[in-house]
């Protein structure tokens, strides 16, 4: 493997027990980081920790909807590893798959609490820790192509991911003077446990459906592709990149799909 790109850095990753979060934990560890796995899925998280089997990874149970738990998770990372250089705010839920005409507002509120309030809380407490310790850190958030393209996701989820992009842009402007970079990654249709269960599809079925709609053919989007984008944004290779919404979508959001149908 090439030289580790995160050697000596400490990362906190939310939603890290499965999907994009888990893939990013494994990749960050490979590249020398110490990682705190943050999630509410205790059994899955412990399985991830056990499979990695390293002193450089540990688990902290945290519901990102609860600001006190978020603050405690940040404090844990600093007490455990002595620093906090990277935040990957990734925890999210998909929410109701119904029409806007039948939208369940309680479930809508839960999506916003997890996907927006949770991201805001993690940015707040991670950046506070970085500023207090004069750490020129990297904050990364998981958004979605649904933040750029109408109809790419259900209502609550799409609204929440628009908000995530907004939070990233505002935080970028406020934290730049402290040397802290803030970016987001926006994947397109990705076969994770959450998406497959929400759509009632097997992984192969979800990937087949996504492949038909994809602009870039011959490549199946995986969690590792998104993790690699997060690795770039976490590393010094992106030292002057901030405020970016990095689409990991094979060009899906910049192509007119109506026009493509004519060809």
From TrEMBL:
InterPro entries: NAD(P)-bd_dom_sf, SDR_fam. One of its GO terms (molecular function) is 3-beta-hydroxy-Delta5-steroid dehydrogenase (NAD+) activity. This is Reductase. Its EC number is 1.1.1.145. Transmembrane segments: none annotated. Keywords: NAD, Oxidoreductase. Pfam families: adh_short_C2. SUPFAM superfamilies: NAD(P)-binding Rossmann-fold domains. It comes from the Eukaryota. Belongs to the short-chain dehydrogenases/reductases (SDR) family.
